[in-house]
């Protein structure tokens, strides 16, 4: 018997079937039709409590939706809404905007609020905001630290994009009203880790799909009278890709479970997941294009939709260097004698 999560995934796949991936441009920055279909099905509020205006469900359900959409190269801000901004707004006790409208998240180190509370206004520039110009509201992590919820309907977004063409523009906030809730340093670090974990979930799903496509292509494409997959060199490359994907999936799943049970090690688990996922991108993307040959680089082929996202997501929400430092500091917090227990506890 299919579980509720299986049914959710099947629903997302059915909806995705009607919306093929496309090359994002300045004129077509996101898939508004796909978003509308997902929202109509109640999928843009999964994992968020019904009492706050969400659709209910568990964290695992939201993760499953994000994974499915990432594997399908869906150009919608669901990862930001379900795994980062939505939960952050609810946890801070701020009113959750309508889940039918896109909500994004960004770390805004150059934005300040004065004064704190309901009458706050924001000043400064938020850089590299996911889906800037598309999202209707944004949850911004401010210095202090604090979480600000701002309506973006009157805010002009800069026209910057990542390698995949996803909007990553800046928001210039000059006395823009916002709701602001102070956070502890621990809460702010967990929020940053949640953002990194959201990208790790997307990376894991895309890596798995790229591996599947490459294995399929190696079995179908013939060279010198036999499938590419019969050549030992290709088999070794596929095995290396598979090893990378398995390692990433294991660490991402462990981090999701840590988040779900409220573990105190969630920051370190998310750090490990982001570091490992980022490192796998170089290997998997390179070998996938090597096996596919020149066809994988063409606009007409599906592979680039995911490999360009892999290269983009790898550098977002903190690079491997950033999270490696967090991970090393946390693992060594109890000194050399505590290193092994910390390693086994986190990963």
Can you describe this structure in just a few lines?
With 347 residues, this protein is α+β, with helices and mostly antiparallel strands.
Poorly predicted spans: none
CATH superfamily of the largest domain: Butyryl-CoA Dehydrogenase, subunit A, domain 2
Report the sheet-strand fraction: 5-15%
Q: Mind describing the biggest β-sheet?
A: 6 strands, mixed
C-alpha geometry: globular
Radius of gyration: 20 Å
Distance between the termini: 32 Å
CATH class of the largest domain: Mainly Beta
Q: How many domain units?
A: 2
Order of helices and strands: HHHHEEEEEEHEEHHHHH
**Widest beta sheet: strand line-up:** 1-4-5-6-3-2
What is the tally of helical segments? 10
Look up the CATH topology of the largest domain: Butyryl-CoA Dehydrogenase, subunit A, domain 2
